[in-house]
Amino acid sequence: PQGSEKAKSFVHAFLKRSMPKMKDEAIQDMLTRKAVVLEHYPRKKTKQKRKKTKGFTAKQRRELHLFDIEPEQQRYAIFLPLHELWKQYIRDLCHGLKPDAQPHMIQGKLLKADLHGAIVTVTKSKCPSYVGITGIILQEFKHVFKIITKEDKLKVVPKLNNVFSLELDGFISYIYGSKFLLRASERSAKKFKLKGTIDL
């Protein structure tokens, strides 16, 4: 039929144009076998590297005052609900703080616990002016605690050379700040070693 002849001539011309270096005999041989494989080299897709979203640097955070607490927010009463939440969090963490609980087990959990909302007191210090400061921890940094007192004063107390105490349900725990120079996120993953004596 006329249609098949047109199709054959079209395929022959197409193959000749697609593979100009191939001889007519080789093209005819390919057609008789009725299996035509056209060479095709796909373009390699270049993988686009995902750009990691960079957060603010410490300097930028300070310039933007991201961690500053506004003066009108520096009121002890505002953070009392936070303290109630913290107490419930510690009770759940330590399975109720029962009288028969082992102190070293509770101490180990408190070492890794989040202290935002805890009421602490500076019991010992190489600087006498810090002794007696009591309040709710609002922010914990690597080297300092920011504490709001009952007098609605925001105190920045260094951890170094200070001993803090916190009391919950009759259980009193002491925090030796010199051994506590870690960010809260780092502290939760750190393995603390038990030591016999700790000095300021």
Automatic annotation (TrEMBL):
Main localization (coarse): nucleus
Subcellular location, record wording: Nucleus, Nucleolus
GO biological process, one term: tRNA 5'-leader removal
Alphabetized InterPro entries for the sequence: RNase_P/MRP_Rpp29-subunit, RNase_P/MRP_Rpp29_sf, Rof/RNase_P-like, Rpp29/RNP1
Highest taxon of the lineage: Eukaryota
GO cellular component: nucleolus; ribonuclease MRP complex; ribonuclease P complex
Keyword entries, A-Z: Nucleus, Phosphoprotein, tRNA processing
Annotated signal peptide: none
Pfam families: RNase_P-MRP_p29
UniProt keyword Phosphoprotein, yes or no: yes
Entry GO MF terms: ribonuclease P RNA binding
Function in brief: Component of ribonuclease P, a ribonucleoprotein complex that generates mature tRNA molecules by cleaving their 5'-ends.
Annotated family: Belongs to the eukaryotic/archaeal RNase P protein component 1 family.
Subunit: Component of nuclear RNase P and RNase MRP ribonucleoproteins. RNase P consists of a catalytic RNA moiety and 10 different protein chains; POP1, POP4, POP5, POP7, RPP14, RPP21, RPP25, RPP30, RPP38 and RPP40. Within the RNase P complex, POP1, POP7 and RPP25 form the 'finger' subcomplex, POP5, RPP14, RPP40 and homodimeric RPP30 form the 'palm' subcomplex, and RPP21, POP4 and RPP38 form the 'wrist' subcomplex. All subunits of the RNase P complex interact with the catalytic RNA. Several subunits of RNase P are also part of the RNase MRP complex.
Name of the molecule in the record: Ribonuclease P protein subunit p29
Source organism of this protein record: Daphoenositta chrysoptera
Gene from which this protein is expressed: Pop4
